[in-house]
Amino acid sequence: MAGIIVGYFGFQRSGKTMKAYLDAERYRKQGMEVYSNMNVPEWNKIQSLTDLPFNHDPKVLLLDEAYYFLDSRNWKNNTDATIFFNTIGKQNVLMLLTAIDPGTIELRLRNQMNFVHLVKSDKRFIYYKMLDVIRGHERVFTLEKTQQLFDSLTYDTNQVPDIVDCSLKDFRKKVDEYYNNKIMNVTNNRRLKAL
Asked: Which of 131, 147, 151 is closest to 139 using CA atoms?
């Protein structure tokens, strides 16, 4: 799970956010914290990538309508992008993101995706094609649009998600601070033991 990136792509109102939500909720019910730009009870609302806690607990980051803020304007520095990908792996983050089309997401993010869900729907069903990018497998499944399905959702399906500050410069600064503090703590502990 650590460092895995999953994309959900489809037209507006196709069911991509619903599938991402259902996946994130499954992990939350297993005890993982979920961080998102969506207003969902029992989830942690974030405004910036720096709101993610740095620890090794498994966690889910769900960014809905990510094309609002995860494009090349925020990802100009390749080194910062590399640090981001390495950090989410080391910090045990499963990243889920939704967008209308993969082409609207920063290229480096698209290239790092492990799984892609292509979504479309009609009046009765939502159709999903899941592509395992690494292994080259695919799986097709459907969800029936029942009242029970919609009653199980704890978010407002008509709400526009908030924009998240995805400045990698700020994220890298947090990474540097985190690891510098860790190094200082280790050094101080060694000095105490030597006394």
From this structure: 131
Distance CA(50)–CA(175), nearest Å, equals 9
The residues, any chain, with a CB within 8 Å of residue 131's CB and separated by 6 or more, are 115, 116, 117, 118, 137, 138
Q: Is 42 exposed, middle or buried (0-12, 13-18, 19+ CB in 10 A)?
A: exposed
The reply to whether the predicted model has a pTM over 0.85 is yes
d(CA 19, CA 90): 26
Name the 3-class secondary structure at 157: coil
77 pLDDT exceeds 70? yes
- CA distances 72 to 32, 37, 58, 109, Å, are 30, 19, 28, 10
**Domains in the chain, start-ordered, CATH in brackets?**
5-168 (3.40.50.300)
92 phi-psi bin (left φ>0, alpha ψ -120 to 50, beta other): left
CA dist 11 and 120 (Å) reads 7
Band of residue 12 on the pLDDT scale cut at 50, 70, 90: confident
Distance CA 53, CA 59 (A): 9
